[in-house]
Structures are given as structure tokens and as C-alpha cells.
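Chapter summary example.
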Amino acid sequence: MHKVLKTKNPYSLLTVLGLILLMLAVRLLVPRWDTLNVKAVLTWDVLGYYLYLPSYFIYGDLYQFEFMPEILDKYHPTNVFYQAYPAGNGNLVIKYPIGVSILYAPFFFLGHLYAKIAGYPTDGFSAPYQFAIGLSAVFYSAIALWVLRGVLLRYFSDKAIALTFLIGVLGLNYMQYVFIDGAMTHGYLFFMYALLLHFTIKWHETPRKHYAIILGLIIGLSTIIRPTDIICCLIPLLWGVTSWADIRTKAQLVWEYRLHFILLIISAFVATTPILIYWKAATGHWLFYSYDDQGFSWLDPYFRVLFGFEKGWFVYTPLAYLFVFGFYYLYRHYRKIFWAAFVYFILNTYIVISWDVWWYGGSYSCRALVQSYAVLLLSLAAFLTHFFNKKTWKKWAFGLLVIPLIGLNLFQIWQYNENIIQSEGIKKAYYKRIFGKTSVSRYDLAFLDNKDHIKDESKYEKRLLGEYGFESDTVNVVDYEFYKGKKAFHCRASATEFSKGFEFPYKDFLAYDEAWLKVSLWAKHGDWETYSRLVTVIEKDGKPEKWRGVHINNHLNTPGQWVPVYYYYEIPKDKDPESVIKSYIYTQRGEKLFVDEYRIELLTR
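The structure predicted for these 605 residues follows.
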């Protein structure tokens, strides 16, 4: 069972080659090296991972980033420069580790060379750089798939491996974070895990010093790509362990090859030195927690990461259940690789769901688990091997289940890239509304933030409670953009966090059997995302008791056009009569967002 198959293994070979070609085709068809596109390659978090390269090699400025205002104005890679922040000693320190930049580096230099030859701006952000970094993910992922094929062929059949790759690549969110948003960390870590598995097996088959050194470099580089991935060291440590007695045997093996183990530790440390040197130079400290106030809730993990409707792994990519089911068959038939894979999976998942930024920014399904698929393919292959031994009708039944779920995943990835599945803030009600849809209506969008809805206003009496045209305001208003009149409110959080709003005594509404507020305005935005909210809240002594609102940008699909934004708020009966109802605009990030004709109406039966 554990011998390498002697055949040419055509099914897995053709599958891997086909997936590599598909990956390249999708990368070229969804290029995102339009440098003014909000979804361009070098934007948002990727900008933070990439920033080391242009800062050092082009501008010679790793600590002040004086070149960034010009880059922000020209390319708009982010609407707020959160990728670096004050270190407390006059320097700015990059939030994100340096590891991905190391893997970007060869492609950065190729992009820089081509920019010089072809006459593009050699500023680190013009099209050649975007193109080169975008293709780097394809390069590393192609190697990873090829290496993993060799790993899997040691244990599983050719056909089972072919199906494993089809499900693992096309049936989950791997495609989004390697084919499309490939410059994120996940595809590069997937590559590192593929190498880790390969060299773990090589060392256990034939212990060699250079295998140990390579393993150390892989572990060290993985750690400075994403620090929590230091747990990848568990895989070589637990490889081959099947019982408590094997732990003693493994300890004896480590002692027998202690020089290898020392070389592994030294090489791992050497691989981490780039970030240590950077932290020392930027902050004065060899060790520095660069994620500032973001941390973990170890005692209260966020299980919504797995089961919630905003990013739930099992909700959006239900084929992920096969990874979990596969561990049963991995345990029964491939015990020597079970514990290494299973312990890693449990610990890694626990870390992922404990991170306080549990939604992991704009993402489809849980992107933080994508790199672990390199290891989880072992359990998936074990599950599929089991099914290949079943009766024909069971195979057909399994196919009738899996094929639609792969189709659903591919369709939802399309929905995500068309902004039908929103990158943040999805609720169960909204997911149900847009399931299977190729477009969304204004009514659908209302379900994003708010579960209170009125389908037919004609059944209610309507009365205007308040209206602002911002004509007499002086704070955060402009006269060069407006929907009506001569002024509009400009949502700039740096000037004021809250707009002028409305306030009403809560008890004034208690006489109605059923009462709703309709809050509305007209909004217009520029050429990238905004994050301001239109909010209604019941407060008692300044503390919110019922909060509802909408992200204004969710309703603005066309830059440069005035669009109506509204939602309904059902007034509850069970709050303190001395409470107040407030409505206002919360200007989190809206540098290019304008609003006008802000109204609040009362609807009663």
C-alpha cells in the first residue's frame, strides 16, 4: 500500500497539469493589474506584505514611508494607510511579517527590470509589478500541486488522487486565494506546507543533514510569513507516531540524529533573522508584536468562523466536511500519518477561530484555513479511497452529491467576485436572499445589515419626522457635490466621527401598536470603497439597547452616481420609557463618500 506506484499515473498527472493551466488562465482572465482598480494585486493587506520591497530597493525608506502619500494619491492601493503604524520612537513599523516579500522578491525584480525596459514608472506599483506579483502565486502553487501529487502517490491510488485534487482545488475556496487573490499569504504557505510534507517524508525514509536543514528553513520562513504557522513543526515531529510508545521511539530517533536536529533549529533561526533585524532597526527591539492591539480569545473562540453565515467554512464550502470525515479513514488505514495531520489540523483550526479579527477582513469562506489544505488533502484522499472501494451505486450517489457542491462553490466564487456575496457583514437572511442569484436588488441589499423589513409601505400611514439637506451646516459639508440644493455632507472621519442626526423620546412611540422608522438618504462615492454607516439606535444613559444600521457602501455599486439608501427599523415595546432614539451617520472611512437629503419617517398601521 505504501510503495510508490510504478505506473505513469495518468489521471493525477493530467488533473494536476489541467489545474495548473486553469490557474494560469483564470489569473490572466481576472488580471487585476489595472493599477487603479480597488481589487488590483498590490492593495489592502497585500500592500503590507509587499511594502518591504519597494521601500528598501526603490526608495531606501523602510521607517518613514515618505513616498506613500504620492503612491496613495496615484494608485489608491488602500483608503487608509493602516499597513504601517508608529513604533513609538519616531519610526513607522510595518504591521505584516516579511516572509511573503522574500517569496515575492524574484518576481519583484523581474517586474522592476521590465518596467525599466518598457518605460513604465519604476515606482513599485505600476502594471509590471502588479503582473509579476500576480503571477508569482501561480508559479508557487503549480510547484505545490506537483509536489503534493508525489506525496499522495506514496499512499493513495492514481484515480483517488485525481479526484482529491479536483475537490480540494475546485470545491473549496483554494481557487479564490490562489487563482484570483493569489498574492495573499495563503497560496505561498500552501507551497511551504507541500515542501514540508515532501522533505518530512524524505528525511524519515533516509535521514540526511541537508533534508534537516531544508526543513528548518521551511519552518522558519513559514513562521515569518504567518507567525502562528510555527505549528507546522508538529508535522515532522509527529510523523510516523502511532501511539504513546512511538513518542519514546521518536525521541530516541531525534537523539540518534541530534546533529540533524541542531542543524534544523539553526536553519530555522537563520530563516527568521530578516524580521528580527527589521524589528530591531525599526523599533529598537529584537522581538516586537507588530499586530498592535489585535490578539486572541483563547477561552472564547469564534465558532462562527466555521458555522456562521458571514464567513463560515462549512457554510460556504460544505465539501470541507470531507476533510473532517476523512480523518476517520486516515486513522484506520494510514495510522503513521494520521496523528501528525490530525493534531496539526485541530491546533491550527483552534488558532484560526480564536483570532479576534475572526472575519479576516474581506474574504470568501474562511481564507485563513486555505494553507492547511496541503495537509488536509491527506485526509480527503483517505476518504475518497474508501469510496472507491464501495459498490457502483454508492459511487454514483457520491458523485451526484459532490458535483453540484463543486458547481455551487464555483458559482459562489463568481458571486463573490461580482460583489453579490459581499466580502464582509453577510447575515443569514441576506445569504438566503441571494442564494443562486446572478444579480441583487435594492431590497436584497437591505438584508445585509438589518433584519427589519417592510415589503409594502402602502399598508402603513407615513409621517415625516425630520429632514436634513445640510444647507445650513458648516462642518464636513461641500458645495461641489450635492444631490439637491447647494451642499452635501462629506463623510471624512478625520474631521468629525458623527454627522448631524435626529433624536426622539422613545416613549413618544409607545402609543402605537406597530411603529417603524424609515431612515433614508442619497449617497455618492468615488472610485474605491467607503465604510461609513447609517445608524439608528435606542440609547439609555448613553448605552445602546437596540442598534440597527447599514454599510452605505453596500448599496453603492456605481461610482460617481447618486443612489438612494434606506432601511427600516421596527420600534420595540420592551425598552425603558426614558430611553431615546437616535439616528446619525457614523463616518468610519469615507474619504470619497457624499450624502444628501437625509430623512427619517414614521410608519404606523
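To summarize the output: The CA atoms of residues 335 and 407 lie 33 Å apart.
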